[in-house]
Write a structure and sequence with these properties.
about 15% strand; 8-stranded mixed beta sheet; alpha/beta; globular
Amino acid sequence: MNAFPTAIAVGSEEPLSPGYDAGAKDDAEFNKLFRHGFTTIDDVQMHYVIGGDGPQVMVLLHGWPQSWYEYRPIMPSLLPGRTVIAIDLPGMGDSTGNPPSMTKTVLATYVHKLLNHLGHHENVHVVAHDHGLNVAYPLAAQYRDQVAGLFLMDAALVGKNLKFATLESMFWHFSFFLQDPLAEELVTGRVETFLTYFFQSVKTAGENVSDDELAEFVRVYSRPQVLHAGFGLYRTLTQDEADNTTLQDTPLTIPVHLITQAGLADAFLPSLQDAAPHATSAVVPGAGHFLLHEAPDRVLAEINAFYPNPTP
């Protein structure tokens, strides 16, 4: 029996993912503020964690190899004046089912439909990290009335001027994940070993993920469909490049801001400015790719500076 009851959102379906509450089930304070929800969108049961009842909706999109859980440390601090929704991308985390494609235009449509189901049709503030950025952009570009801003963390956007081949040459794991089905066959049954190495390989001077965080990410990526979907994020980047090239013909006019680890802003910002010419950036000194783990206070401050808290 759980030490504390885990809240379920009003109108939620019965979850198809066992253990969906494993990461936060014993956190009484968190469970007072947030509840889990499950809604089927186009044959995929989408999992999200929602809290608050403020007028401003903020959506949090995760990257690889994570889930909604990467945002857990800062979610309570985001609540005043906001409704905060952390989403497990289709096929990932504790979302269950296989979307027809892991292209980011398709994943963005799932997020769009989920937000519509929850009644949030406009003025949504989006926060996204890593591949979450790749979903956030087509969400904003395809559903322009729904998204009011993009706050993005440590990733680049393939498209007109940044080609997937360039990114593949910069990061070892891009090439590894393209080996289908070899990558899955090598990692299956060894998820903890692989993720332990992966997180350590990309950290810098900041704190690495905690043991509890690692355990949660190991749990979700040990689901066969999730490991496959996670590698699919990379295997579809060539198509994303083509899709984004078309979308970039109509530039975004909403505010867009990127924060990165040191040394990558000059490489990453121009790729975003192909999509949003007035996009800005800032560097988080001393942190690596996993900014929410290594510098959560700085990330929170940057979010609140970009999206001023509506609470007086």
